Amino acid sequence: MKSDIDTRKLRIKNKIKNYFSNPYNIIVLISVILLSYLIIVPLVEIIATTFRVVQRDVRRIPGSKPGDFTLYYWTRLLFSELSSSLLYKPLLNSLFIALSVSIISITMGGVMAWLLVRSDIKGKKFFSLMFVIPYILPSWSMSMAWSAVFKNGRVGGIPGFLSMIGINTPDWLAYGPVPIIIVLSLHYYAYAYLLVSAALKSINSELEEMGEVVGAGKFLILRKITFPLVLPSVLSAFILTFSRSIGTFSVPAYLGMKVNYYTISTMLYSQNSANSKAVAYAIALIMIVISSLNIFINQKAIGARKSYATIGGKGGRSTVVKLGWKRHVIFALLLIFVIVAIILPLVILTVETFMLKPGIFTLDNFSLHYWIGKEGSMPNLYEGEAGILSNKLFWNSIWCTFKLVIFTSFIASVIGQLLGYVISRGRRKLSGKLVEQLVFIPYLIPSIAFGAIYISMFATRHGIIPALYGSFALLVLISVVKNLPFASRSGTSSMMQISSEIEEAAIIEGSGFFHRFRKIILPLTKGGFFSGFMLIYIGVMKELDLVILLLTPKMCTMSYLAFMYTNENYEPYAYAIAVVIFILTFGSYWIGGKISKVDLVGGLN
Description:
- This protein has 605 residues and is mainly alpha-helical.
- Helix content is 70%, strand content 0%.
- α11 packs antiparallel against α12 and α18 packs parallel to α21 (472-496).
- It is globular, with a radius of gyration of 27 Å.
- Residues 304-316 and 601-605 have low confidence and may be disordered.
């Protein structure tokens, strides 16, 4: 009997020893612990906060003490006299905007993708570059460009270009849902363009050629063959656009809040700024539920169509439709779109930074003051504020931005490679699937809601973890965790291309895990690593929604500084910062494309 017990103990001891001697298991264990702490625990904490009485509300809840269980905040949000203004109107506004943006974006992006992939339109390289610029640009900078053109005198500050030349734009065109929908559509159509383009390029011409053989017309082939094959990509783009639009903050904040047009994201920000954090967290949870439902619908819709085969036996050639004389008309229309929707707003935004007073086109009104002017040199102009290049606050913001993007991109890319290793090697294991699901959770959570979660988690000390609010470490932490879905996807794609036989050969030769990872795996995946690095770099460079609740005037990025200037009606300074961010972001994208062939489609999937 004693011998059997000793044998079982020895067997258990050996199993534990073997488990912890396997580097894969160690990485899985550490990944699950850290991801649970950084994702699941904050989510549980924010849920609990919505059911706990806070000190400031003790008087509103008779007989309560701080920390007591309560339904007060949910009742206030869902069933009170304030529910309409706190939740239902902003939610309906968000749903209307998201649905409108999704329909417009999918239509625009899908048509552009078909023209550039399947037609003989001229200037394909030029248009393929121009069409992704709105994605590279921060959405809030496009809001500024819209204001620079259409703003009227309703909310003060500098009038727009049209007002300067005597055209008084109506309020509905300057502020509210119409400009928000247009600006977001011009930003998010790139998702549909990139995803549908990739799908069209993967479809072999065989099926379409068979349609031509049996006498089907071009429109019938497009409707009955091509469209069903790209429908999964269209559905992905629709749900992705809908999720991003319903949770976006910056564009509704720039074009809506000043005229009291609120969406669910701007209401969350407003409640958090008013120190009504429990209500803000409840709104964040509702946003998470909506986003999760969108992803669930997406998975179900796409899962039902996975049986389509798009690669046949005749190679990768795709059908090119001859447009005849129409190609010249379409080329002209696309060129007008690029000039009016992309180039002209940026030009006007830039010109505004050189004009001391708007609407005066004399040479003495053009100046570099908003760029290099000294503090107090023009006391009657924006209280003597210095130009951004002479402003310590701007240089602090650019330093903070670059530190944030470098640290975040490097750390997230390294972790992404490790997680990609676990996911790719554990695809048929419970451990690999668990890590993949945990990594995917931040993707479900809208950025501003994720920021609210991290305020709840790190505003106070938890054991050995100090309070991180207002610190640079918290900005890096939340940026890394939020970008893990993209980093791990890039890492998984790279790892899937490396045969396990190479690693097994190294093991036979006695090579340890870290030696194998450093000498074999990383060199073979350096292309994917750098692509992931650049994609995260570009995303963090223009980020505002994620960090808006975490930043302070002393610890701010360029995006946040531009937001502050806009709120104070110091538009020329905000415009100048937007131009700087555009140059830096587009330059990063161009360099990344030259060096590593950055794959935007891979980053969006």
